[in-house]
Amino acid sequence: MDCDVAIVGAGPAGSTAAKILSGKGLKVILIDKNKFPREKACGGGLPIKVLQKFSYIKESKLIDSYSYGGLAHSFSLRYVLEVEKDEPLLAMVLREKFDEGLAKIAVSSGTKFIDGKTVIDVKISNNNARLTLADGTEINSKVVVGADGIWSCVAKKTGLSSNLNTYGLSVYEEFPLKSEILDKFFTKKRYGHLHLKIHGINGYGWVFPKKESVNIGIGQVDIKSNKENEKINLKEVLKNYIKLLQKQKIIPNEIRLENMRGAALPNHPLKKTYSNRVLLCGDAAGLINPLTGEGIDYAMYSGQMAAEVAYEAIKNNDVSERFLSKYEKKWKKEFGKDIKLFQFAAKRWVKRDEKILKLVSKDEILSDLLLDLVAGNQSIHKCRWKLLRRIFFLRIKNIFSRSN
Question: N or C: which end of the chain has fewer CB within 10 A?
């Protein structure tokens, strides 16, 4: 099979790129190793700003529900940051439905979708990019977009992958619940919960209520791959987390773990996300919020940027590494500084989470700002000085209040 662009991975990044490229009249093939619909390990939180940029998400009814606020609990449980908003803070999605919906949108734009087929090899030559599937099928394209996750075959076969010295892990389960029970525990505004450093892990536990289910999980954001013996059993942590939530009366006592799922997550971008005829986006490029592990927005943004650059390259008959480097410049300009600042914040947060939450919980302005940042609705780079000024003001205020 021949095409203009072959895209490996039909998650939010791949399907976004496919929709845009097909809409521009290019011949696109989208391939995924799983048969759709398929589940994806994810909490399912989507920043509201994504809906403003990709309006077809809401138009296609891919949003399950909205959350209007939440509570963040410190490690000791002594401090709670609580935010309630009149407008939605997060859109909640069911990844099985969300990802299938995005793939269908790409198909309706003209994309050829091949699911249940695994790409096992990628070869780049002066003439084309050739993908080989497990069943022997070969696909020739002018450009290949790798959107196939943290263990990206495209990145590996084209020399762009790097040894993961650190990465993240998550385990979760989606529990069906009647809407009246969800209303009772989380109100109609579906307030969520975060428990920082739950049971001492470098990460957090989450409770994301949705329309007729609640997603409960654990995320460990910084695991050293060379310290096998120090790995924490996240399944046991999740079991204990469920017990804690029931003791706090955050969730019903009837909830029992039955179908736990897990996944590995990147926690930093690759050194290089492009090569001759190749672009990497989403998790395959390591584009994720290293503080929270959230990556749907970065996936869709990078998918859009990859599509724009690939289209320009093909129209200019220049699919060289030099030309495609425009893609990395684009995403670095858009959110690269945010990722760096979140990496810095993640290291500081681990050491001082209790003090930070104590400080933030006493100030409504800082609480709102911080939760907006965590939810992905604010750029930390753009509002960093506002954040620092507020923290400085509160520290000075505390000093004077103590002296009095």
Answer: C
* Structural domain count, the chain: 3
Q: Are strands 90-92 and 45-47 parallel, antiparallel or unpaired?
A: antiparallel
72 belongs to a structural domain: no
Q: What is the CATH number of the domain that holds 53?
A: 3.50.50.60
- Domain residues for the domain of 216 are 167-265
Distance of CA 136 to CAs 5, 145, 249, 323, 393, Å?
A: 19, 20, 54, 31, 64
18: closest CA among 375, 363, 237, 299?
299
In a domain, residue 81? The reply is: no
* The token pair that represents 180 in the structure block: 């009246």
Contacts of residue 358, defined as CB under 8 A and 6 or more positions apart, other chains included, come to 74, 78, 79
Alpha carbon 315 to its chain centroid, in Å, reads 31
Residues 284 and 212 grouped into a single domain: no
Strand partners, 174: 215
3-class secondary-structure state, position 157: helix
**Distance from C-alpha of 116 to C-alpha of 179, rounded to nearest angstrom:** 34
Query: Which pLDDT score, from 0 to 100, does residue 230 have?
Result: 57
Say which amino acid occupies 92.
M
- 280 lies in the same domain as 157: yes
Residue 80 lies in a domain: no
Q: Following CA atoms 9, 14, 18, 21 in sequence, which dihedral angle do they give, to the nearest 10 degrees?
A: -130
Q: Across the 404 residues of the chain, what is the mean pLDDT of every consecutive 10-residue run? A: 97 98 98 95 91 95 95 88 89 97 98 98 97 97 97 96 82 96 97 90 92 95 59 89 96 94 90 98 94 90 98 98 98 92 72 69 73 72 71 58 52
- From CA 131, how far away is CA 108, in angstroms rounded? 24
Residue 275, pLDDT score? 98
Task: Compute φ and ψ for 307, nearest 5 degrees.
Answer: -65, -45
Structure tokens at 362: 């006493």
